[in-house]
Structures are given as C-alpha cells and as structure tokens.
Amino acid sequence: MTRVDAGTVQADTTLQVLHWWTSASERKAATLLASRLADEGVAWRDVGIPGGAGIGAGKVLKSRVLANDAPEVTQIIGVSIREWADLGFLLELDKVATANKWSNSFFPTIQTLIQHRKHVVAAPLGIHRINTLFYNRKLFNSLKLSPPESWDELVLLAARLKAAGVIPLAQSSEPWQVATLFENLILAESGPDYHRELFVKQNAQAVFDKRFTQALERLRLMKNWMNNPVDERPWTDVVRQFSKNEAAMMITGDWVKGELNELGFATDEAFSCTPMPGTGKYHLYSVDTLSMFTNDYSRVLAQEKLARLVATPAVQADYNAVKGSVSVRRDADPARMDSCARASWHAFAQGAATQAPSLVHRMATDESSKDAIIAVIHRYFIDATVTPADTQARLAAMFKTFGSNKKQNP
C-alpha cells in the first residue's frame, strides 16, 4: 500500500479500468459508472475481460502487473484485496474515506473488507446475495405451484415439475457454478457458522460432519433435476434458458436479475426470487469492489474521484438497480428497491451472525485454496464413481496441507 502527498501529484483525466463485467446487464452497469465519471471530467477506458467469476480477469491482471503495465483501476474482490495490498500495489484511499465518512455510512462487514492494516484500499460498489432461488412465475402459475421454503418442499416441487415435462433447475456444469450451488446446500444444511468453519477456517474435521455428507448427497440428487446431460456453459446461457420458460428455477447469485431484466424478463412479473430453502435468515454474500494501482502516481486525483463517486448514495442506488446487487450503505432507501433487493439488503443488515462469505466469489479464502476446493467439488459432481467419502478424504487432506503451508508461511 502506498500513501501519496497530493501536492506532488499531477492530475490526469483518463483511467483504465479492468473488470469482468461483460454480459449485457454488466456492461450497462459499467457504462453507467463511466458516464458518471465523465461528468466529473475523467474518462473511463474500459478493459472488460470475459469469464465467469472473474477467472480470466484475474489471469490478465497478474500478467499485466508482471509486465509493469498494471491498469489504474481494477475490480479486485474479497481476500484478493488483502493479497494485492500485501504486495504494496494498492493506493490508500484514507483521505477519500475520511472526507466522505465511509466508516459511518457502510455496513461493518463492508468497512472491514475494504481495509488492510488500518488503511482503506478499495472502494465498494454493491453486495450480491448468492443464496437466491429464482422461479419462473409463468410455469409456477400454470402448475399452481408455490415457491419452496424447505428442502422437502423443493424435492416435491422438482418431482411435480418433472412429471409435467418441465426441467426443474437450470444449471451449468461449469466448476464455479457447481460450487456455487454446493455452498448454498452447505448454508441451508448448517448455517453461517459451519459454512465459515469449512471455507474460512478450513477445518479438516468439519469435512467429516454428517451435514457435509448430506450436502454432497443432495448435490447429486439435484443433478437429476437439470438438463441431461448437464453441459458446461456460461451463466448467461443458463439465464437465457430460464427466460425462455425452458426451466422453472435457478439457484445462483442475484446478478442474474439484472440480466433477466435486460432480456425483457421483468422482476415480480415474469419471475420472482426467494432465498434458497433453508437459508431465509442468511446472506451468502459477495461484494464488488474497485482498487486503485499506484503505478507512477500521475492519476491519483482521478482515482480518488472515482473512489468517491462510486460510494455516493445516488450512484449506489442507480448502479445496483442495474447490476442486480444492493447498496453497501446503511442509509440506502429500501423503497427504491425491488422485492428481491429489499430482502437481500435487509438480510445483510442483520449483521455478521447471519452473513456467510462466499467461497466461490473470493470472500472466504485465497485464490489457490478456492480453486482447489472447487475442483474437488466439481469432480464429485461430474463423476458418478466418486463417493462422498472419497470427496471428504480429499478435502480433509487438502485442508491439512493448507494449514501446514500457512504455518510455514505466516
């Protein structure tokens, strides 16, 4: 992290912004930010890298930093913020945070997330709720179905949909999408404490808990509710299947809401959302944030303008309405939100006891650990010969290795 004397800085009016917002709704959200930044006299040079969950963008960022060509602004989220700050690449935004009273305006979890060693190193954009079940109102109404509130209700619902010739669940076999569904099952089965025990603390003993076994068994059962075979496809294709009335439900993050709206599939008309059964009180979260790279310091004033701008009440309200997420601000107006957003914002506002940091979306652990865990879950999903016991043994051994590495490299 680097602090800069503003008196030594020369203003520059262009910022290159690297991110992974490449779907129609995401591009619309990025364009909104670029337009508001232009009003401040700063040009947004867009560098959007395709790839679900930011996998491609992460690789591009690393290669550009190694080539001494880091963008001025980058979408970096969760634990990755701390990793880049440790390397000394991120600009400290303390002046912006203090002047705009971020410590009083943001939820405590957000305030903690954007800090490293007592310095603010990221500007928060919005909160996504990952434990969201979307249901197709046309299909539900035609079959006189109600949204499920428990696992047993979900099972019965899936059986009725299959009997009616409807695919119950739109889903991809892409690794991060499978793991997203799995961590929903973990949260539903056990709540935030156990979710953290697994994915934050990486407790090897927790892997052998019967709740983990049951989550694995339920994941395999749910495979019968999907396309046969379950093909690997981007999340936008899954959303299109749902919007064409070809599947009745999706269980994923609320970013798909923005995409559905862009497709003309309106919230609370064509579809509605409810928490994943068993997680009504909980919020499995991911937070979008922007960090500023120090480079030659010639663009610090422009970087600080962007950081201030994205956290303002007006931009927060407008950006999150497009993106499908909710404001990071405690003073946001729920009356301006749709029903899905209101439920998400109120759930997050309940505090840390109800919140679970998403594994898949970089909130729970470092990049290498995340990727390794996802790979094990994905292997179980696609290979019917892999048993729950096999998967538990692999993960337990992996967690022990992670623990040993942390002791050797504190």
What does this protein structure show overall?
- The protein has helices spanning 24-39, 55-66, 79-86, 94-99, 102-105, 108-113, 137-142, 151-163, 175-190, 192-199, 210-222, 235-243, 255-262, 300-310, 313-323, 339-349, 367-382, 388-408, and strands spanning 14-19, 43-48, 73-75, 115-116, 119-120, 123-129, 132-136, 167-169, 247-252, 271-275, 283-292, 355-357.
- With 410 residues, the chain is α/β, with parallel strands linked by helices.
- The protein has a domain at 6-128 and 287-348: Periplasmic binding protein-like II (D-Maltodextrin-Binding Protein, domain 2, 3-Layer(aba) Sandwich), CATH 3.40.190.10.
- Strands 1, 2, 3, 6, 11 and 12 form a 6-stranded mixed β-sheet that branches. Strands 8-9-7-10 form a 4-stranded mixed β-sheet.
- A hairpin with a 2-residue loop joins strand 4 (115-116) and strand 5.
- Helix 9 crosses helix 10 (192-199) and helix 17 (367-382) runs antiparallel to helix 18.
